[in-house]
């Protein structure tokens, strides 16, 4: 059972070292600060595309298959 504890500690150490670069000041959130609102815009655009596709399926004229 002692080896199980060592493996967990080693695993925790591995993940801690792997994620250390995220705390570096030069790496942190540069893209997020450069493009404020981009995430919300992408989500809103995705909702718009899904809504438009649903609208086109429901309200498509019966004889019109293409433009």
TrEMBL record:
Database matches in PANTHER family: NADH DEHYDROGENASE [UBIQUINONE] 1 BETA SUBCOMPLEX SUBUNIT 3, NADH-UBIQUINONE OXIDOREDUCTASE B12 SUBUNIT
Domain of life of the organism encoding this protein: Eukaryota
Keyword Transport listed: yes
Keywords in alphabetical order: Electron transport, Membrane, Mitochondrion, Mitochondrion inner membrane, Respiratory chain, Transmembrane, Transmembrane helix, Transport
Main location: mitochondrion
GO terms classed as biological process: electron transport chain; mitochondrial respiratory chain complex I assembly
Localisation per UniProt entry: Mitochondrion inner membrane
Cell inner membrane among keywords: no
Function: Accessory subunit of the mitochondrial membrane respiratory chain NADH dehydrogenase (Complex I), that is believed not to be involved in catalysis. Complex I functions in the transfer of electrons from NADH to the respiratory chain. The immediate electron acceptor for the enzyme is believed to be ubiquinone.
Protein name according to UniProt: NADH dehydrogenase [ubiquinone] 1 beta subcomplex subunit 3-B
Coiled coil stretches, renumbered: none
Topology in the lipid bilayer: Single-pass membrane protein
Alphabetical list of InterPro entries matching this protein: NDUFB3
GO cellular component: mitochondrial inner membrane
Entry's family note: Belongs to the complex I NDUFB3 subunit family.
Record-annotated membrane-spanning stretches: 33-51
Species name: Zizania palustris
């Amino acid at each position: 059972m002692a080896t199980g504890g060592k493996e967990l500690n080693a695993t925790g150490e591995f993940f801690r070292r792997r994620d250390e670069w995220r705390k570096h000041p030069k790496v942190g959130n540069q893209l997020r600060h450069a493009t404020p609102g981009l995430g919300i815009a992408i989500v809103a655009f995705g909702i718009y595309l899904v809504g438009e596709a649903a609208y086109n399926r429901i309200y498509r004229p019966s004889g019109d298959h293409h433009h």
